[in-house]
Amino acid sequence: MRIVNYILFILPLAVVVSCSTDDDGAPDHTQYFIKYYGGDGDQQGVDVSLNADGSMVLLGNSISLAGVVSPFLVKVDGQGQILWQRACGGDNERGVDVELIQKGPYAGSLVVATNTGSGVSSRIRLIRVRQDGSSIDSLAIPSGVSQVAKSVTALRIGTGYAVAGWASGDFTPDPQLVVPPPDEADILSLHVDETLTRIDTILRQGGEHVGSAVKVFEAQENAALKYMVFGYSDRPLGSGLTYELNFEVIPSINGIQYPRKDAGTVGEAQTAAAVIETPVSYGAGYLMAGTSGNSTAGDIYLAKFTTNLDNSYAQRLALGKSLETVSLALAAPDGYAILANEIFADGTRNMYLLRIRLDNSVLWARSFGSSGGDDSGGAVISLPDGRLAVVGTVALETQQKMALIVVNATGDFSN
Amino acid sequence: MTLIRKAVLLLLMSVASGVSGWAQDVCELTLNRAAEEFNAGHFYVIPGLLKECLDQNQNQAWRQRAYLLLAETYLLLEDPIGAEDSYLKLLKSNPEFVTREDLDPIDLVYLSKKFTATPIFSLRGHLGPNVSPIRVIHDVTIGGESYSRQRYSFRLGWQVGAGLDFNYSERLSLSVEIDYAFTTFNYRNSNLFGRSKDVVEFTDRQNWFTAPVLVRYSGVKGRMRPYGVLGYSGHLLLSDRGNITVINRDRKMGEEAMNTESVESPTLTFTHKRESFNQSVVLGGGFTLKQKLNYLFVEVRYSMGLSNVVNGANRYDDQTTRWPYVDDDFRMDNLAISVGYIHPFYKPRKLKNARTKSVLRNIKQGAHADR
């Protein structure tokens, strides 16, 4: 009977040992996941704002079955579970950026930049929303020409909000333009005060036929507040007369525009998509990310500026793919995360997340999306524990949905 | 010509069967005569009488009777080697022969206790249907909803297998099997997107090699013998494929009518999203039905999965961005009903430790009526 006794002893032991292996530590699916959000119709993911408690507010746009577009906000906890979701804004309005207000009476609330209408009737609107999802107020910025916002910055040194985008028409044609192409878009930056009543122009630049601000940062310069308007423009570089898109940053103090600084590669068109402030450990300054190339093939393009707005470097990342850069984030401890869209021959896209080191060498890259589906990125942020969160749009078989993708520091869904 | 051939063939067959039948009849007469000689006390002539017929390889019943007579004869002739040899041959003729203390001579019963014919090994084969209950470890949602309104339901799979039993004793045996199993289940989530809520259905189908190691405790009396099994099983996943159906239910603002669109995916591979090796504890029972020297059996077996079937590292992939389905972490059980066949390899042999104590005890107590 010794064999039988041995078996009867081993069996329960095997059961105990086997059962104890499943629940060790926090389950991966609560830390790394893909989750979809939305209601009836289609929903597209655009941007995300991180709160100190780990919750996130996702901004997207909802497209009803009748084709009406309106901004859509979802607040989720750190595991991606919905805390609330709501439509925000009106019909034919698109959200483009959401930021946490860190100063003033509305600190802790959110400011959302949207574009209402389209074409010549396009206008910029700022909407303030509390963390519980309730509306505070909003302002549709009046304008005689079409204006389009690309981002809003909740000011921390100054007060109020700085809007970056573009306006149609050229109210001060550049005399350098000997044979000017049709003037389509000029860099625009506006300041809106804390009460959402007063609007000042930080910058409106002419002289280009295509240009746009993408982000405004602020800095203290002596006693004055200096705005730095980052964007792109096709104004000729230096004293040249070739109209070609390149990165630009234009300082503005007390409404006075100072000489622009640019970065680009001659013979290529660079379009800026995102800008971040870089800490001292990364080399204090600003990193711009965008796309260099033409309409059918592009590469990620990076340009670094110091705090004095001197261009440290400008570099194209040739990865052998057709990419359009969407968003940029610091990725601790030693690099950046770049979100791009990979464009395929049939016009469909996949999200492409890239982790680069400080020397711009590629650490890893991950693609999110399905073959044949048009999946596109909205924004990437770095979470305090090193995880990366991507907001975008996935084309499910029957509908588009806003997606939140959270991966670990190596782009994977597990420890 | 063909007719002549057939006629000749028939004639030869008739002659052959006639010769065989004639030989059988002769040996039957010989055996009867040997029995008469035994009763008359003429023991020495009996081995010689039976030898010719035994050499002719008679049928099983005849040989059993003949060797039984020979064993009794040798016992009376005080030839233990001849008695043991005859009894061993008797067991080879009928491995399930047992002496009865109330009918057989005590010295034959005593002799029988020195032998056994129980099979050391048996071969078994089985097949039948199964269902796979799912036990969720973690509810993983693909939507931002905090919970899934989800339901797993049964679908009918099947299994087929073969095994080898090591019979430790008549009651206790150890089985090792190699089975092939097809398992399947349904999943439905109805808490996804919008006021009207989309419905996602998933049908999963797996192919497994399983290797159960089972301890079996059996009844030994009667034609129908119950038994129970307890054991451990390793499962090697060969493939996992599934289909996802999305029922998109949207309602236009201000309209009661609902737009419903149902789309089913092509067959998708889920093998990489599963752990290749899984394990379970097996509990079951059934009964065997004796069929001559073999057994038919019916068995119900429940395998309780011990490990998470899902490979969490591959939970999300390109499929996830096309079809709104994501695996929960789950353990997979299996309830299987099998019918099968057992072929025991009987091995008549002399025991190292004869089980003669009970016979001696009975003799001492005078319980046995010596004839």
Notable traits:
heterodimer, A: 415 residues, mainly beta, 5-stranded antiparallel β-sheet, 4-stranded antiparallel β-sheet, 2 helices, B: 371 residues, alpha+beta, 8-stranded antiparallel β-barrel, two-stranded antiparallel ribbon, 6 helices, elongated
Question: Strands, helices and their partners?
Answer:
The complex is a heterodimer of chains A (415) and B (371).
Chain A: H1 2-19, H2 28-31, E1 33-37, E2 42-50, E3 56-63, E4 69-76, E5 82-87, E6 93-100, E7 110-116, E8 123-129, E9 135-140, E10 147-154, E11 161-167, E12 186-192, E13 199-204, E14 211-221, E15 224-233, E16 246-253, E17 256-257, E18 261-263, E19 270-278, E20 285-293, E21 298-306, E22 311-317, E23 323-331, E24 335-343, E25 349-357, E26 362-368, E27 376-382, E28 388-395, E29 400-407
Antiparallel strand pairs in A: 1-29, 2-3, 3-4, 4-5, 6-7, 7-8, 8-9, 10-11, 11-12, 12-13, 14-15, 15-16, 16-17, 16-18, 19-20, 20-21, 21-22, 23-24, 24-25, 25-26, 27-28, 28-29
Chain B: H1 2-39, H2 46-55, H3 60-76, H4 80-93, H5 106-112, E1 115-116, E2 121-131, E3 134-138, E4 150-154, E5 157-167, E6 172-192, E7 198-218, E8 224-251, E9 258-264, E10 268-269, E11 277-291, E12 294-305, E13 329-332, E14 334-345, E15 349-350, H6 357-365
Antiparallel strand pairs in B: 1-15, 2-5, 2-14, 3-13, 4-6, 5-6, 6-7, 7-8, 8-9, 8-10, 8-11, 11-12, 12-14
Helix pairs in contact in B: 1-2, 1-3, 2-3, 3-4
Shape summary of chain A: globular
Structural class of chain A: mainly beta
Encode the helix/strand succession of chain B as letters. Answer: HHHHHEEEEEEEEEEEEEEEH
Please report which band the strand proportion of chain B falls in: under 5%, 5-15%, 15-25%, 25-35%, 35-45% or over 45%: 35-45%
DSSP helical segment count of chain B: 6
Biggest chain pair interface:
A-B, 52 and 51 residues
| Number of distinct helices of chain A | 2
Q: Estimate percent helicity of chain A.
A: under 10%
Average pLDDT rating of chain A: 89
C-alpha-based Rg of chain B, rounded: 33 Å
What is the percentage of strand-forming residues of chain A? Answer: over 45%
Q: Report the count of strand segments of chain A.
A: 29
From the N-terminal CA to the C-terminal CA of chain A, the straight-line distance is 46 Å
Shape of chain B: elongated
Point out poorly predicted stretches of chain B.
none
Quaternary organisation of the protein chains: heterodimer
Poorly predicted regions of chain A: none
Mean pLDDT of chain B: 88
Largest sheet of chain A: 5 strands, antiparallel
Q: Describe the strand arrangement of the main beta sheet of chain B, using strand numbers.
A: 2-5-6-7-8-11-12-14
